[in-house]
Amino acid sequence: MLRAFLIALTGLLLALGHVATASSQESTPAPRELVIGTKQAAPFAIKGTDGVWTGISIDLWQRIAEKLNLKYRLVEEPNVEGLIEGTAAGRYDAAVAALTITGPRAEIIDFSQPFYRTGLGIAVSLSAPARWSAIVNTMMSFGFLQAVGALVGLALLVGLMIWFFERRRNEHFGGGARGIGASIWWSAEAMTQASTGVRSPITFAGRTLAILWMAVSIIAIAVFTAGVTSALTTRALQGAVNNANDLASVRVGAVAGSATIDYLTDQRIKYRGFPTPPDGLKALRAGEIDAFVYDKPLLAWFVLQDYSSSMEVLDIVFDPQNYGIALPLGSPLRKDIDVVLLDTVHSDWWKQTLFRYLGER
Prior knowledge:
Blueprint: H1 2-27, E1 34-38, E2 46-47, E3 53-54, H2 56-68, E4 72-76, H3 80-88, E5 94-95, H4 103-106, E6 109-111, E7 116-125, H5 131-139, H6 142-166, H7 177-192, H8 204-238, E8 252-255, H9 259-266, E9 272-274, H10 277-285, E10 291-295, H11 296-306, E11 311-313, E12 318-323, E13 326-328, H12 334-344, H13 348-358
Parallel strand pairs: 1-4, 1-5, 8-9, 8-10
Antiparallel strand pairs: 2-3, 6-13, 7-10, 7-11, 7-12
Helix pairs in contact: 2-12, 5-8, 6-7, 6-8, 7-8
């Protein structure tokens, strides 16, 4: 009887174990399908005509998802603001495109480790600017006006000093306003090496100052002329925009809502906003703006695809930026994604990916 009781008890325990195991398996939910936001930002996120997504960021996410056994589906957003807001609100489990890591964005969402370091670039038209336009731009530049002001100021100062030395012994420079006017006119005449018959100083101090002024003015005029000639030649050969500092004096375009706007605003550079990069590049080609500023790799891609014969991207990078994967605040995926991402960007696969899309070795 004892043996029968033990056998029955053992069978009961085994049965209960199977039931508990089955119940546990039934209660474990299947992995949830993640919703991943993206937007077209070639060459980082490219949507083909068949609806299939490719690109640097998309390929990177696919590799991460494979490593972590994540199921997901891509949802397209028309603009960056939609990606940021959707991720912050939890509509997206992650956002993958060409998203710049910034302070304001990091306040409402989390970012993965950076996977691409770049900066802003400038696209300009290859059409040579009109000569009159180059001359006007040079004449209105701060440096030119500053140089003219310095020359005029020196001429006025020397004229006043000549009047002070000559006013009592030289009747031509004597008197009040008439004498001051004659002195300033003589100073301008000496500076330009022109001769209009104006009498010269006769006092020792006046003649000494005149000799010094003639020598100094020759040098000043030569330097001024060389500077203007060099500026006009540079603008004629290279165009009105050669670096980021030139943006303050030309018509600038940028994508509304992009990180580029933060830079232009901080630098007090006036700009015209466009919905997309192609819209801005069309305006550049039409002559409505003089320069278009955007993330350099994206800008280079657009120009290479559609505008290689009419515009170029300057060989400069400014305002360094980092691209990352956006996640909701406190996302449990962040650490796992960072681990795989860091391993990936130091692999040969990543080097081959960058070379395939950007030609970078």
